[in-house]
């Protein structure tokens, strides 16, 4: 059982939509030798669940997975083993923002692909280690991006954010009600985000951790879309355990549904024979 119900809708107003999944992180905060996106959850690599969540949505035309050079063969084997479709693997860069830019380039430059993919109207950028994304929030950010040029999911802050002074003492705290946590997915009109990354990578060597942070290059105001609690990111080892627990629960729920369905079918068949 994979995360996301992935219903087969017609898509957000029939827009051409692609997704870029940066999956090149080293997973330092998780600990261990294997990057978190390739850690097994119920016997399956975490990145495979995220790819499947996107793959089951018919209106997403292409799924670009950006990985570190040393994990390209690993990603190829995952695609082959689990039968993923519509997936293109791209070599990542030295930083996250350069990796995302490499993912965008497959629609505009031949450098990272043997052939250019069809340029989408809207591109979704989503973390490969956020496997529980649903079609509803993806559709919402895509529609908002079509209207505003850029959009991203947000969540309320759980803890109060404070700033410390140079001496290590409290300087000030932020009014929590005014602020939100920036989450994924985020969506952009392709031309806007491609130009923004072109400019950022040309004029700045410093990383841009959040795509919406490049809005000064986007020349647009990003629309913020309230997200759901299942948008969390696998960061620490405890998150892997939580993800495994959720997926186990999904499998149990599916099996229960199948059993109920089969029981109903059996009852209907028996009733039909009694009526004959």
TrEMBL record:
The gene is Ispd. It is found in: Cytoplasm, Cytosol. One of its GO terms (biological process) is protein O-linked glycosylation via mannose. This is D-ribitol-5-phosphate cytidylyltransferase. One of its GO terms (cellular component) is cytosol. Its main location: cytoplasm. InterPro entries: IspD/TarI, ISPD_synthase_CS, Nucleotide-diphossugar_trans. Homodimer. GO terms for molecular function: D-ribitol-5-phosphate cytidylyltransferase activity. Pfam families: IspD (PF01128). PROSITE patterns: ISPD. It catalyses: D-ribose 5-phosphate + CTP + H(+) = CDP-D-ribose + diphosphate; D-ribitol 5-phosphate + CTP + H(+) = CDP-L-ribitol + diphosphate; D-ribulose 5-phosphate + CTP + H(+) = CDP-D-ribulose + diphosphate.
């Amino acid at each position: 059982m994979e995360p996301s119900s992935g219903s087969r809708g017609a898509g957000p107003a029939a827009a051409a939509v692609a997704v870029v999944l940066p999956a090149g992180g080293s997973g330092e905060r998780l600990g261990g030798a294997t990057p978190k996106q390739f850690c097994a959850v119920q016997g399956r690599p975490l990145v495979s669940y995220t790819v499947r969540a996107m793959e089951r949505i018919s209106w997403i035309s292409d799924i670009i997975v950006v990985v570190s050079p040393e994990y390209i063969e690993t990603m190829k084997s995952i695609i082959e083993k689990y039968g993923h479709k519509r997936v293109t693997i791209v070599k990542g860069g030295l930083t996250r923002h350069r990796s995302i830019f490499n993912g965008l380039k497959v629609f505009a430059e031949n450098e990272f692909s043997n052939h250019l993919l069809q340029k989408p109207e809207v591109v979704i950028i989503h973390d490969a280690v956020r496997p529980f994304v649903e079609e509803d929030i993806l559709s919402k950010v895509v529609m908002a991006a079509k209207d505003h040029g850029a959009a991203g999911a947000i969540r309320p802050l759980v803890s109060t954010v404070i700033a410390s002074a140079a001496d290590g003492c409290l300087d000030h705290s932020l009014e929590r009600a005014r602020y939100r946590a920036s989450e994924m997915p985020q969506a952009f009109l392709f031309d806007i985000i491609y130009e923004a990354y072109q400019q950022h990578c040309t004029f700045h060597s410093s990383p841009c951790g959040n795509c919406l942070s490049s809005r000064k290059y986007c020349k647009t105001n990003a629309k913020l879309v309230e997200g759901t609690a299942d948008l969390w990111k696998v960061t620490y080892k405890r998150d892997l355990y939580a993800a495994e627990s959720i997926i186990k629960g999904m499998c149990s729920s599916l099996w229960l549904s199948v059993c109920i369905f089969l029981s109903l079918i059996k009852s209907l068949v028996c009733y039909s024979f009694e009526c004959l």
